[in-house]
Amino acid sequence: MRLPHPPRKYLPRGARPSHAGGFSLIVTVTLLLLLSLIAIGLLSLSSTVVRSSRRDGSMAEARANARLGLLLALGELQRTMGPDTRISANGDILSSDGSVANGMRHVTGVWNAWDPNPSQIGSYQSHKKGAPIDDPVTRGGATLTRPDGGFHRWLVSSMSLQAASEVEFARKGSQGELVTLVPPAGQSRDTLVSAARVPLFNNKRQTKGQFAWVVLDEGQKAATNSAAPENPSFSALQTLATQSELAWRRVSEWSALDNLSAQQRQKLVTRSTLSLGGVGKVNESIHDLTPYSATVMSNTARGGLRTDLSLLLGSEELPPDYAHRHLYSDSDTPLMEAPDRSRHRYSWPSPDPQWQILHKFHRIPIDTFAGNRENPRLRFSMTANAARSSIPHRPNGFTGMRSDLKTAESYHNSLKLSPVISKAQFIFSLTFARGSGMANSNKNGFWDRDGGRAQSRWKAQALMIIDPVITLWNPYDVPIDVSSFRIFLYRIPVAFQFNTSNPRIETPSEYTEYVMAIAPGANVNRNFAYPLNIVPEQGQRSIELLPGEHRVFSAQDYQSSWAIGMGHTEGKAVTMAPGWYPPGSGGRFAAKVGGISTENLYRGTGGQTTAFFKNKRGVRFPTAGLPVEANDQIRISVRPSSSEIGKFVTAGNRAVDFYLRYGVDVPDSRIRGGNEQQDIPDFGAIELDYGDRIGDILRSYEAGTELPVFPIERDDILTAPMAGGHTSLNRNRQVRGTIKKKPFLVATLHLKSLVNDEFRSKFPAKAWIHNNPTAVYASAGSAGQMEDLAAQQYEFSYQPLQGDWLNGGFPEITGDRNQGYGGPSPGVEDGRIFAPFSSLPRSAPTSLAQFRHAPLNSSGKQPLQAQVIANSFAHPLLEPDQVIDHSNAYLDHSFLANQTLFDQVFFSGANTSDLYSRFLQGKTPLMQSRLQSLAKGTKVAEDFADLPTPYEEAAAHVLFNGAFNVNSTSHHAWQAFLTAMNHESIPQLESLNQGGLGTLSNSGKDSFTSRYQIPIEESLGDNLDPFGGGDERPAWTGHRRLTDQEIERLATNLVEEVKLRGPFQSLGEFINRRAEDSALANEGALQAAIDKSGLNDVPLRDTGLEIFADSGGQSGFANPNAAEGSSLVGTPGYLTQGDLLHSLAPALTARSDTFRIRSYGASTNKRGQIMAEAWCEAVVQRFPNYLDETNLPGDHPSRPDTNPLSEINERFGRRFRIISFRWLAAEELLAS
């Protein structure tokens, strides 16, 4: 029987009746297969996990090795670049004299800075590029060691530390297997940087991994953080010397940066964000462009922090430790003592100037100027009261002031801001009138008709008249108001011979030496002073001299030599007023023009009379005068005269051929006749003494050939009195005729002419750079300085006239202001009405280059270098390898000033410590907007104003953003950096005849340069010059606009100069010429690049003189090559490195403090196979704090008031910190 099915409710879901047999086997097999698959999967997963774990371990190991490399690199960077006295340069700097290994061009090298003792400069031919540490340099049998050695190492991994410590490592390259740390990019593919893989071993000497690293210098690149947002609280005038922005458009891939504001560029904090800012080809620009570069304001040359000149010089008085400090020696003991001079000579200071001069120059806007900042004025006054004079009285032995150190320092440290005599002309003429000498002649019967005393109306005596005509020049770019200007005239080097056709006169064969302006009677001493007093016109309180203006002044109250020289009560000074009114000109003073007259035409060297006349009885009588009558003919011959009689105590008891003093305006009662007036103070002098060379320098003129013969007509003889005011009378109503005078000679003293005209220099020179024309003391020849006349400021000459006042040869004058000519020439054809030489600050300076106008060398002591600071021209008086010549008491002022200052100081733009304190707290901006406070929110910032020496501490709390290392060889970086003045709105002195301040629009952000603190209109006032034209006189322009093409050429040539001369081991070395016997000794790198780029080709096409080694006056030069070239070098349109540095200097440095470290790490197996690789990058920044913070940032051995450095800090210097870090993807290391 069949068993019934169980009830459905008992069957499992899905179960079938028992008749489906064999199903269990199938299920079992299926389950076994599934379990097998799971087991296999688990085994596979386990293997994958193991392999992944191994890979993670290898990558971790690789990253650890990369971090190890980074830390080793940071350690080497701290060791080599932590101390202040280190400089950095890339391997490419060696490429001028040999190849650099592939991958080494952009590797950072480290050298010691070099600050040689000035007395040792030039003592060897050239310091070797990369001389190893303590490697001596031998020259001329003497072995010398450069202080602190030379090269340290290349900051790149190497299999041999010794190899990386050799300069040649950059040429040979790393040995062994290399790894790419910066890939090649672009067409040139020269971005490549590679480093040696350094293996790591375990304790069993088995390979454990690898690392490699390199340090890249960010300071040699153009930095996008170079400009802070402009602050409206400062005027364009105040910030003109602070470089506003780089010229990004000059590099096409960077041009988008010009479209970003300064605030936006501040946000470009990484290289990846540069592309977001629109920068193209970022990979190709890795060695040219950076988003961050900052530097500590430390003294690269000597160590320690820089001094803030804004705080130091902004104070009313210099602190005691600077009150008597000399600039070049940087101590109270000068580099060279003051030269000895004879007992009564005016003293010279030490050629080593004092800091007082910089202090006074810095404070000109506060202490010196009258008027407002935009339209300042100078006030010039010289009175007997030294305290009320604009220039202190000059110390001398006669008055006893020379022994008064305080008085001497007061004068020598003064700025001596004075008008300059650019030209002094003395016109000699004859007139015929009844004079005082007639009585002596007549009593001996010369004019007797019958032996009685009756006189013929037409009989008279000859008088020689000298018309002094002075051209005063304002050499500054601000107006000067002159209350009075007194000159004591002593001597003119000319002798005359007067012959007459009258047979009754016996004239001598010898010449009468007019050792004075005239021959004053029989007095043999002949050292009388003839005062010329330049005064304002009637109704005016002062004489206005506009910026650069030349104005002419002439004598307008005719005086006799007797009245002036012998001390009569009348006319103790010849009054000189604006204008020149020759007889016949119709001018309102024409009848009175003529300063000094004499009747003494025949005097011997002993004062005796040398001529004779016979009366009608044939009796022979001596005479000093020349009696004349109608129909006589007068013949005149002229020759130069160098007299040894009439010695001057103020000139060291010596005779001087030409001599005048800039006198002090004193009451007439103090001017005693027949006296040198040596007890009357002065503030300068001009001395020219030719000695036995005078016949070669000045020529003679014979009567009847070059000089006229004067026939005397009856109308030529003046009688007394004449109506109409055509004569002036002395107190005895004796006639001193002027209207009939006949000119026969003009003698001219003038500053050197730069052109080939009637005033062509016999001894041509680069006068605006080598012959400082603003020195108020000029001394040449045996009475002073024996240097060749090419080294002097002034020249003297004379030329014959033909008796006609309106036929040339006379003072050229133009315009209602009685303006004269100067600059390139004192003549009308090539001269200029306006020619500013020096520029005075209208606001506190913010750049060292602004001090190139400071009168560091105004004493008149040779060499007469001008535009001292920031320029680098060699002076021909010094050997190429000399900066000090003790035997002649010469100093190379430019070299020594640059070496001292450029590494030692900076400008914050804060004139008080309170203002700087508010800046540190983040409350107040500074004019130098690139300074970044590191002390915000600290007590240091709050307490800064209470520090005793804040100028020494200011650098401890700031970084300077966008600093640029002068050792850079990046063409693109230089191209962007060389921007000069590129503000959108540039202040400009628009019209020199009005002195107004306007604006030079610069919407295209072009680069402008100017010789002046603020640019002057391009024509430099030539619109008032009838013979000029702005486009025709490119050497005389108020500013230059540099095109992008010119900047590109300049960048190219500057990179070549950097490679040729570098690495520069201080900023001063970059600014200066090389003191060695080579072509590099003529000028510095920047000036050489300017010249090679042709930036001065157009100015040099202006009218000038070409100077050769055999030109006149060059024979005595120690370095005639320095004198060769165009006379136009140094003129306003000639671009100098000082002009460019005006705005570039604050951002320059010789070292970098921001670096990028790239490091590589690899993990390897036991067989050395690479298992994993990693790359990382860190940006590190040096800060003012020392590594060992037991020392304060301001501590340094150069400051004895601070703590000595710990051993750690002496060795490792200031702390580097990592400011950013990232891992690099492998794709970033691929070539692009």
Automatic annotation (TrEMBL):
The chain crosses the membrane at residues 21-45. Keywords: Membrane, Transmembrane, Transmembrane helix. This is Verru_Chthon cassette protein A.
